Amino acid sequence: MRYTLLLTLILTALFTYREASTAASTKPAAANPQSVPDKNNLLGLPPLPIPANNPQTPAKIALGDKLFHDKRFSIDGTVSCSKCHDDKQAFTDGLPVSTGHHGLTGTRNAPTVLNAAFNASQFWDGREPDLEGQAKQPLINPVEHGLTNHKQVLEIVRTDPDYLATFQTVFDVSAKKLTIDHVAKAIASFERTLITGNAPFDRYYFNGQSDAMTAAQIRGFELFAGQGRCVSCHSIEQDHALFTDGRFHNIGIGITQVRQDIPRLAHAFLEAKNKGGQVDTMVLTDKKSSELGRFAVTDELSQIGAFKTPTLRNIELTAPYMHDGSLLTLKEVMVHYNNGGVNKAGDPVNDFLSGGIRPLNLTDAQLDDLVAFMKALTSSKYASPITAQAAN
Amino acid sequence: MNVINNSRRNFIKTAGALAIGGTLPISLVELAFADSSQNFSFAYISDAHIQHIKDNRFVRNWDRGLIRAVAETNLLLPKPDFVMFGGDLAQLGSKAELDHGAQILSALHGDVRYVMGEHDYYLDLGEYWEKLFGPQYYSFDHKGVHFVVLNSIRTYDDWTFKRWPTAEQRMLEMAGLDNPNSSPFMVGEEQRLWLEKDLDKVDKNTPVVVFSHSPLQKIYKGWNFWTEDADQIQALLKPFKKVSVIYGHVHQIQYNQIGNISFNSVMATAWPWPYPQSYAQAEQYLPKLTVPMNRADPFFERDATGWQFINIANGNADLNFTLSDNTGRIVRYNDKQKRPEDTLYQDEQTRIIPQTHY
After folding, report:
1. Structural domain of residue A55, as residue ranges?
2. I want to staple A294 with a disulfide (CB 3.0 to 4.6 A). Which of A72, A101, A303, B147 is the partner?
3. Minimum Cα–Cα distance from B271: chain A residue
4. Do the Cβ atoms of B113 and B82 come closer than 8 Å?
5. Are B325 and A352 an interchain contact pair (Cβ–Cβ within 8 Å)?
6. Rounded Cα distance, B235 and A8, in Å
7. Is B300 within 8 Å of A356 when comparing Cβ atoms?
8. Using one digit for the tens of pLDDT, what is the confidence trace for B193-220?
9. How far is CA B138 from the centre of its chain?
10. What range defines the domain where residue B89 resides?
11. Chain B contact present for A69, CB below 8 A
12. In A, residues 310-349, which contact B (CB 8 Å cutoff)?
C-alpha cells in the first residue's frame, strides 16, 4: 500500500518534471565536455537561497575564491580554507578528522563545501546558521587556523594593496571600516557557487531517463526509499533532492564509545560553557566532549549525541564517513545502519539513540545495492556560478 | 506572553531540563532553591508497556523508550528529589515483563516510587508487582507536601473475580480499547475509606499531590480515560487549599482545573495515543481539555513520547515535558487564572496546527 503510494509519487514527479525541464533546457548551460545531454548542472537542486544582505557579484565571488585559498590567514602560514576543503578532493580532505596548523588535529570530519549553500545550518552540530557565520570560526579556532582573533585577518587584508583595492570595489568600504563580516561574506559568496546536481539519480528520477542508473542502483534506490528507511532523513522531494532533512539525530556514531561517561561529560561541558567556554573550541579540542553533538549547542537532553544529517550528493568522493570519519567505506556505513546504530551486530546501543534507528534486516547483497545507489549521486560536474531567487 | 516570574518558579530550566548554561546561570539555580525550602522537583516516567515476545526477547521500541527516559532523568541538574513511575510498566502483567522493566528502572539514581497501572494488575491482581515495588496505595510527606498514591484502575468485583475463565483472558480484556467486555476503572470503597482517614490527619493548608494511573476525572469511557468514582475522590480532596492530581494512562498531554484541583497527565515512553476526537471520526462531546500536540512522525519511534520533571513551586505542580524528536512543552499553574496552562501554546495564534488525519 505504502509502496504503491511511493510509485505513484515517483511517476507523478517524473511526469511533472518533464514539463519543467523543457522550459529549463532553453536556458544556456555552462560549457563542459563531460556534461550529459541535458546539460543542466543544477538538475535535482532547489533554487539557491541567497541572503538579501549578501548578493552574488562576480567580483565578490572572485575575492572569496582568493580568500578561500589564502594560507596567510593562519598562525603558521600553512592553513587556508582549502586545506581541509580541497577543490581536488570534492572540497574535503580525505582524512578522518582534519589537520590544522602545526599538524594539530580536530575531532571532526571536514564536510564537503559542495552544496553546503543549501544547508539549513552549518557545522556537524549546526552551531552557525549560515555560510557567513561558518567562515569566521575556523580562523580563530586553536586547532584549525589558530589565529588569536579576527583582527589578525584584517591586518593582512589591510596591508595587502590588492586585497584592499578589491574590498573597496566589492563592498565600497574604507580600510578602517573593513570588518571580518566583509571577509566572511566574500567567502560565503564563493561557496554559493559550489553547487552541483545532475547526478545519474537526477537524470533517472527528475528527467525520466530510465537508463541513467544501473540495475543495482535502481534496486538500491528502492531500498533507500523502502526497507532501508534512508529517505526519512536523507530527503527526496518531488522536484528536487538535497538528501538531508536538516535535522540532528543520534545514530550511534562516536557516542557509543563514551556512553558510560555521558553524565560526567554533559555536566562538565555545561559548567565550562557556563563559565564562558566557546563551544567550537571545546568540541574541537576534546574528542569526548565532541561526541555530545547538538547538545553542546542547545543544552537539550533530547539532542545528546545527535549530529546533522549530511547531504549524500557526491558521497562517493568524500570518504571517510560520519562526523568523526570513523567509517572508511560506504559499505561500513550501510552495515552500521543495518545493525541498528552499532558497528558490530549485537553490540549495545547508546541510551540516547534516535527512535528512527533500528535494525533493518537487509542482506549483504541489499547493502551492496545501497552502496551502488550512493554512487549514482555523484554530479557530472560542479555547477557554474549562478544567481537564483533571493532568500528572506 | 508568559506572566509567571521565571527566575522564581523555574528553578530547573524547562525545555532542556539540564540546561543550566542555557538561560539560567548556576548561581540563579542555587538562589532559587535558597529562596524557598518548599520548592523542589521530582521526575516522572510512565507507561513503558514493556512487552515480552518470548524467551529473552522483548519489544525493542518499548525497551528503548524506557531506557532513554531513565538515562535522561539521570542527567537532571539539580538532581530531582525522587522519581515516580506512573504505571503500566508491563504490557500483560507477566513476571517476565515486570522483572525486565524493573531491571531497566534499577539504573535510576535515587528513590523511585511506583503507581499501579491496569497492564501491571489484571493478571495476578498486583501480587508480583507488590513483591517488587511495595504496597498498591500509600502516602508520604516531602518538604511540606502530602503525597498520595492510589490504585485507580480496579473495577467491580463481579467483573474481576467472576467473569473470566482465566487470569490471562481477564488481562487481555482490560488491555483493549473500545472493548465492550471491558469495565470502568475505579478506586473502590476500600481505598476511599483509607484515603478519608489518611487525609483526616493532614492540615487543610498543606498542598496535596495525588498520583493515580487513570485520570481522577471523567474524560472518555471507551478508552478508560475515566475513573468511575472520580467524583467521590474529588469530594474528599475538596477541603484542601491546593490539590494536584497527576495521572498517566492517556499517553498524551492533558490538563484541567476542577474547583480546587489541578489535573495534569504525563507522557508515555512507549507510544502516543491519538486524541479521542481525532480517533472517533464522528461528532462527540468531549470537554475541551487540551491544546492538541502535533502528532507523531511514525518514522521516529520516540516521537510524541517522553517523560517529565515536575517542579513543586509554592504547592503547585509545574510539568516540564521532555519529548524526544519533538519540542518540549511546559504546563504550568497560572496564578492569575488559577489553572494549569501550556506556557507556549495556550494562545490560539501560537499553536501548532495538528496534522489532518485521513
Report:
1. 50-194
2. A303
3. A355
4. yes
5. no
6. 58
7. yes
8. 999 999 999 999 999 999 999 999 998 8
9. 17
10. 42-350
11. no
12. 349
Q: How far is B49 from chain A (nearest CA, A)?
A: 16
Query: b/e for B324-347, b at 16 or more Cβ within 10 A?
Result: bbbebbbbbbbeeeeebbbbbbbe
The pLDDT tens digits of the residues spanning B178-194 come to 888 999 999 999 999 99
pTM to 2 decimals?
0.85
Q: Do B324 and A355 touch (CB under 8 A)?
A: yes
Specify the pLDDT at position A54. 98
Q: Which residues of B touch A298 (CB under 8 A)?
A: 16, 19, 22
- The CATH code of the domain that includes A129 is 1.10.760.10
Whether the pLDDT of residue B108 is over 60: the answer is yes
One domain for residues A143 and A77? yes
Q: What is the reported pLDDT for A39?
A: 52
- CA–CA distance, A239 with A14 (Å, rounded to integer): 9
One domain for residues A39 and A114:
no
Q: What ranges make up the beta strands (E) of chain A?
A: 50-51, 248-249, 307-308, 390-391
If you average pLDDT over every residue of chain B, what do you get? 84
Give the count of domains, chain B.
Answer: 1
Domain finish residue from A194, A221, A237: A194
CB contact under 8 A, B26 and A274: yes
CATH number of domain containing B162? 3.60.21.10
pLDDT of residue B36: 54
Residues A230 and A216 in one domain: yes
pLDDT band at residue B354 using 50, 70 and 90 as cut-offs: low
3-class secondary structure, B211: strand
**B18 and A358: CB-CB below 8 Å?**
no
Looking at the partner chain, which of B15, B18, B68 has a beta carbon nearest the beta carbon of A351? B68
